Amino acid sequence: MLGHVSDFQWNWHVNYIYDDNVAPLLPAGTTLLVTTWHVNTADNPNNPDPDQWVGYGDRTVDEMAHVWIDFTYMEQEDFDAEVDRRKAAAQSKE
Predict the structure, then answer these.
(1) Alpha-carbon distance 82 to 78, whole Å?
(2) What number of CA atoms fall less than 13 Å from residue 67's CA on the CB side?
(3) What is residue 49's DSSP assignment?
(4) In this predicted model, what pLDDT tens digit does every residue of 35-67 receive, in sequence order?
(5) CA 67 to chain CA centroid, nearest Å
(6) How far apart are the first and last CA of the chain?
(7) Domain count, the chain
(8) Mean pLDDT value across residues 3-15
């Protein structure tokens, strides 16, 4: 799992940006799968009407899930060097 928003607020979200030393390093050919859930139950205090059917759509009253991901492409040599650097840093903390 690369990210998880466990305390969603009904305001527009800001960006979630990894620190450089923990940003995911994904090898060439990696496929990302994005999954979202919406809690439309009466247990959600931000849900004004749990009996109202809500479907996907672009209106603000619809369920929306947008994921924008920025990538930095690295040459294999640079990727390998960064993996090695992080391994060495992790070992020095042990």
Answers:
(1) 6
(2) 11
(3) -
(4) 887 788 899 887 888 888 877 777 766 776 777
(5) 7
(6) 24
(7) 1
(8) 72
